[in-house]
Amino acid sequence: MSYKQSSLSVTKNKDKWSIGRKIETLLKKYDTHLKKPVGDMREQFDKFFDVTNKTGQWLCAEDKKFYQIQIQSRGKTGYATTKNASQSTIHPSKQKIAGKVNDKLEQKDSFEESSNDSSDNEDSQSSSDDSEATQSSIESFDQSTHLKQSQQSTFSAVSLVQSGKLSVRRAAIVSTILNKSGVKITSPQSGVYRAVYREASKVMKTLMNTLCNSSWCLHFDGKIIKKKEHQVVLLRNEVKEVRLAVLVLPDGKATTIASAIQKKLDDYNLWAAIKMIVSDTTNVNTGSKSGVVVRLQKLFVQHGESAPVFIGCQHHILDRVLRHVCDALLGDSTESPNMNYPFVSKILKDYEMLKKDFESKAKKCTPNLKEQEVGWRDDMKFLHHLICVFKHFKNFQQMPKVNFKALPGISNARWNSRAIFALLAFILLPDERKNLQKLCEFICGQWSGAWFSDHYYRTAKYEFLLYAVNEYPKALRCFQTHWSQSPSSIHTQRSNVCAERAIKVLQDIAPLCHSSEKLNLRFIFANKSL
């Protein structure tokens, strides 16, 4: 009895050792297959155990049927009863998949029943092949349909961010609301977030491959956001405008800006493509020895290219000219801290009261102006409207109806805001009209004609402005120094307004991005809306 027990234990130990050896061999082959896949893995491992032996004998018909269903569904069918589970017991993320699997099985069963009824005399093997082919076609159709729906829903969500100018979080909220209304759009915030930056990366790669094939004018401008210097870099030609990059810099020095722009030109291989540079005429940009433009022109020469022609932004030059004319006519210092003229301070203090007083005195027969809407910002549209009001008053000695707007901000960077205040003072303060008459005539004459022009190269425009500023020495010197008479290398606007619009885009998207890399991608992604 003891001998039988000992022999039985030896047999069990041998069986355990045999199974363990087989498992070790299986794992080694599996690791080898992962590193260097050879053929079909199932064909290599089909005889290690009885359950993996294709040519073995099935001991249970139910297991055999279940195996065939798993092969046909590519492992998507689990071991369960024939009764479908309730949708309430399935996780929401799996409910759509479960419904599709059930539909496929129903389609398969109905197809097999119809095929059996119509082809009783056919060979069973050919019937099985047809069933498998049909099942495969159904699965491929469902997969392609699901892929198209997924791509379409992601595209719609990305469009909400790009065209609707929504944050990723708000786009996800809108998508959820639309989903509840029956519109299928990807709603998870993480999915929309990844899709936005995935599309932005595609746009950047496309630009890197194509921009070097055209000729461009380089634009750049800066803005301090969250106590950091941000520079926007753009390209423009006769056909289109491209927002190239946002540069987040430690400071606004000329060396820092030029080095950052140099890196972007290297990344996009644009040294041979840049033919012209347009920027504001600040000291940092236009310094004769160490300005940003001079540094960039030297870098172009070092790369074996001719130095691009520099054109100062005409809007910025007109701002500087207006400041010199205002100081010459009004005779007051506008240096900090006394930046405002007396009439500006009065308008700022009593604007609402002055408007009500003006409107109460207006006659019922006050004419409405018919004017063309001009300008790219609300303050520029307001300036154009006030110019039309002044011209009407000068021609007919009657003040037309004025559509008052909010007052613009006051800063040395935008002296055109003083033009708005001067015209408002002429309209609302009759006692100031004599002092402001000549300044308003200058603003509404050649200055406004140049300000609201198309800003392409024209020699006649230079002659008109030269005549207008001839009696103001400082304005004349400023105009002759910065207003370039050189023809444009590219037929495009000699203004940096495109960079100003890009800064507005930057201000909108900056709060949504937590790194300079993400900010740059979102800025580039904005090209899809141009």
Automatic annotation (TrEMBL):
Biased composition (Basic and acidic residues): 101-111
Biased composition (Polar residues): 78-92, 138-147
Signal peptide stretch: none
Compositional bias of kind Acidic residues: 112-123
Low complexity bias locations: 124-137
Disordered: region residues: 78-147
Protein name: DUF659 domain-containing protein
Organism classification: Eukaryota, Metazoa, Spiralia, Lophotrochozoa, Annelida
